Amino acid sequence: MIEAPGRPQGPALLEVRDLHGWYGESHVLHGVSLDLHEGETITLVGRNGAGKTTTLRAIMNLLPRREGLIRIAGADMMKVPVHRTAYSGIGYVPEERGIFATLTVSENLMLPPTVAPGGMSIEEIYDLFPNLAERRDSPGTKLSGGEQQMLAIARILRTGVKIILLDEPTEGLAPVIIQRIGDVLMELKKKGMTLLLVEQNFRFARKVADRFFLMEDGHILESFPTSELDARMDRLHEVVGV
Length: 242
Ligand SMILES: Nc1ncnc2c1ncn2[C@@H]1O[C@H](COP(=O)(O)OP(=O)(O)OP(=O)(O)O)[C@@H](O)[C@H]1O
Known about the structure:
Number of helices: 8
Distance between the termini: 22 Å
Bound molecules: adenosine-5'-triphosphate
CATH class: Alpha Beta
Structural class: alpha/beta
Largest sheet: 6 strands, mixed
Helix content: 25-40%
């Protein structure tokens, strides 16, 4: 990885070094290295199939096989079983959102376990997401895409984790809803939350991200601070293909 100016100093909260990952015989991650500092937001970009989702899944121990090093606050995560991952302070909002379709909004919000102190109360969640308050008795099936995305984020906020991995939170959503999700992420940043986004929408990502990590063929090509995004746009278009 090429080191860039603007890189935060000090120990990382989440440290990933030379991470490899496989689906069966298929070797998908080829040595991913990245670091995420407390209170920081980074965005992973790369073309379809580059391995962005797989990187998030590997961090959460959701891959059949992975090798390398993952540390959270210095603690080795490689032997932590998948059901204990959240207890290390990390949560995941998958692209498919994973909310319970037959349960109502408030029921979905009651389910997540508390894994650390500081999880948001139902009242705090409804303050942050007024749309969810209005829809509290609606089943998941009746929610719009934006409401589902908000509920998926809200559920993680209930748990008390301090690091959240978000896979394409704006995908398929209308501009006004994207704006709302951006506002929510800015609120979370203010509260000191640490975020790793996979996001193809640069206009959205530049508002919330402190640094970008450019991914190709299962590894990180380079990282740079958001202040350099404009200067690197041609290169990004070349690699990301958008
Ligand atoms: N469940 C799976 N089984 C086998 N191969 C998979 C599986 N999921 C993803 N892959 C393969 O792993 C590679 C990386 O996919 P991944 O979904 O991580 O990419 P991505 O960068 O997130 O792109 P996208 O935006 O398309 O999701 C691709 O070649 C994909 O075909």
